[in-house]
Amino acid sequence: MSRIENRFAQLKAAGRCGLVPYIVAGDPAPGYTVAMMHALVANGADIIELGVPFSDPMAEGPAIQLGHERALMHGVGLRDVIAMVGEFRETDSVTPVLLMGYTNPIEAMGYSHFANTASVAGIDAVLTVDMPPEELEGFDRILRDHDIDNVLLVSPTTSDERITQIVGLARGFIYFVSLKGVTGAGHLDVEAVAADYQRLRAQTQLPLAVGFGIKDVAAVKAVGAIADAVVVGSALVELMGAIDRDLSATEAVIDIARLVSEMRAGLDTLESAE
Amino acid sequence: MTEFKEVETTELPDSRGHFGAYGGRFVAETLVSALDELDRVYRMLRDDADFQQEFDWDLAHYVGRPSPLYYAERLSQRAGGARIFLKREDLNHTGAHKINNTVGQALLAKHMGKKRIIAETGAGQHGVASATVAARFGMSCHVFMGEEDIRRQSLNVYRMKLLGAEVIPVTSGSRTLKDAMNEAMRDWVTNVDDTFYIIGTAAGPHPYPMLVRDFQCVIGREARMQCLEQAGQLPDALVACVGGGSNAIGLFHPFLEDESVAMYGVEAGGLGLSTGKHAAPLSDGRPGVLHGNRTYLMEDENGQILHTHSVSAGLDYPGVGPEHSWLKDSGRVTYVTADDDEAMVAFHNLTLEEGIMPALESSHAVAYAMQLAGQMRPEQVVVVNLSGRGDKDIHTVAERDGLQM
Question: What does the DSSP 8-state code read for residue A77?
Fold first, then answer.
């Protein structure tokens, strides 16, 4: 059983909704990332989603764009991100790690070289934002050979016909984009999410994580009441941007750890509803 | 020149938008349905006689086509070789080839019932051309433009505002065309239901490279007929500048099967290829994925897109349309560079010899064409795409010549 399957099985058995925090690797500087990952786990993260810095992150709103820019100021590239996961794995062998990024850094590294290195480092899954199923074929085969899950997006504009195609290809879990827009957008509509979620649920038994525009404890709870897992990104990355660089990595994580733990506590009040 | 014949070059792209290894549709899931819809509507209208008639009427009566093919006799003498003909896209309404495409896409928007237009712009020519058609069709228009370009092209910014468009400054990344395109994509993904994104060059996710090319092919079709009429022969060589590459593909495409016609795409050499400060992905880049398509890019070893440099804002882009990548690899088109200084010399040469002030983008093509013509025989013919006029660049030229205006 893969780390991701295992984690969702545990969540299901406990009747809990998963919490998936997103941070950009290397933001605000490379030294913070591994400490932050451990702090996220200690405060209730079930899966860690690690953004791979890219110069042109087209799907991101302003908060996460700035996170990418901060990491790029330190020249953090895909190889560095993979090495960070390797370091994280030295002391955490159970928490699944998903890389979220764009096609070009992976192409520049080479699909096979990437998959080899990522697999050795203990990366469980990859979400390539700008690689829809139509362009996925070669990459998907290589990921499969390395037992790396390929997490695909489904959005409110995805037709039922495409959902069939996507659920046929997806592994690990499916990432449902809660709204038409970029990350951190301000127009989350939970009722609309619920309707689309049912449309997707009707076609797959894979776990469904919902992300985009989920910024605070109330939104986490509202979406958590319907989803298998909730992804929170911009709210955390904004706090990363506010980190006082004079603080040590362990001190710097305090605000973010607190927010994640509040979100975790919020989700856990939902347990009885399951 | 045999390899490219293995695939009928003119039949590309395939149904999924691939030109060989290039092109495709690398976008987030939310945009796929909008691109499918655009593809469906376009394929239907492309073969629709009424739509084509509507487009041709607009090109004739609104844009002012056909644009002349002009024998530049004094420029040819100065180059000292082949006869140089200029395809005068600078005489189009709004002063550049960009309007051919925006008229076509605005008609698509109208047929699709979209009332809100967005566009990205570098030099501002595409922004002006988009604002122009939006005004004419009564659509709202929102143009994304890098802060750096807004500074360089203040005249075009004001033109867009006069035309009723909102110009939205883009402050992320390098604050130029590539970042404006990112921001336009972000707007589109947010407003996908009512918004039509008019991409300004033959790049981006499928079907844009195909439909922009098709709308710009009027340049090459006219030039082919005009050249046969005026010179009594096909051109021996075509020359066009390549940023995203829409004016070049528009000129080249109708000639692709004329094997005797050599083609040269001129990229922006900036301060020189060896300095790394240029905008020449085909000459000094490698294939990668950006803005929805696989194509040659300027990128570092981590796959991060590099900042580009060119004296002309319209060429200051780290990628290129995917069909050019395919034409480079197939060997059908030769891609070369002209640097900032060479473009400036060509700007002055054409202005003084012919009384035609070219855009700095087009000046790159003129620079290479003069070099090329100089090595050719007097009975030979070179057709240069004069893709835009230079009024917008006068401040840049003055500044480089050390003048205060």
Answer: -
Q: Please report which confidence band the pLDDT of residue B1 belongs to, taking 50, 70 and 90 as the band edges.
A: very low
Neighbours of A131 (CB within 10 A): 27
Q: Please, where in chain B does CATH 3.40.50.1100 lie?
A: 23-59+98-212, 64-96+216-400
Place of tokens 């075009």: B156
Architecture of domain A3-267: Alpha-Beta Barrel (3.20)
Show which of residues 217-256 on chain A sit within 8 Å of chain B, judged by CB atoms.
none
Residues A183-209 pLDDT 10s: 999 889 999 999 999 999 999 999 999
DSSP assignment of A6-47: HHHHHHHHHT--EEEEEEETTSS-GGGHHHHHHHHHHTT-SS
Nearest Cα residue in chain B from A57: B182
Q: What is the pLDDT of residues A137-174, one digit of tens each?
A: 899 999 999 999 999 999 999 999 999 999 999 999 99
Per-domain boundaries in chain A: 3-267
B64-96+216-400 CATH fold: Rossmann fold (3.40.50)
Is the pLDDT at B290 greater than 90, yes or no? yes
Which residues, at least 6 apart from B317, have a Cβ–Cβ distance to it below 8 Å?
B122, B176, B177, B178, B201, B243, B244, B279, B308
- pLDDT at residue A271, as a whole number: 62
* The two structure tokens encoding residue B54: 């509507």
C-alpha B240/C-alpha B85 separation (Å) is 12
Q: In terms of DSSP bridges, do strands B18-19 and B22-26 run parallel, antiparallel, or are they unpaired? A: antiparallel
Q: What is the CA radius of gyration of chain A?
A: 17
Kindly provide the ipTM of the predicted complex, given to two decimals.
Answer: 0.95
Mean local confidence (pLDDT), B387-396? 92
- Residue to test with chain A: of B302, B307, B317, most A Cβ within 10 A: B302
Chain B residues bordering chain A (beta-carbon distance below 8 Å): 16, 24-34, 172-173, 178-179, 182, 185-186, 189-193, 287-292, 297, 299, 301-305
Chain A, residues 56-85, CB within 8 A of chain B, namely: 56-62, 65, 69, 72, 75, 77-79
Specify the CATH architecture of the domain B23-59+98-212. 3-Layer(aba) Sandwich (3.40)
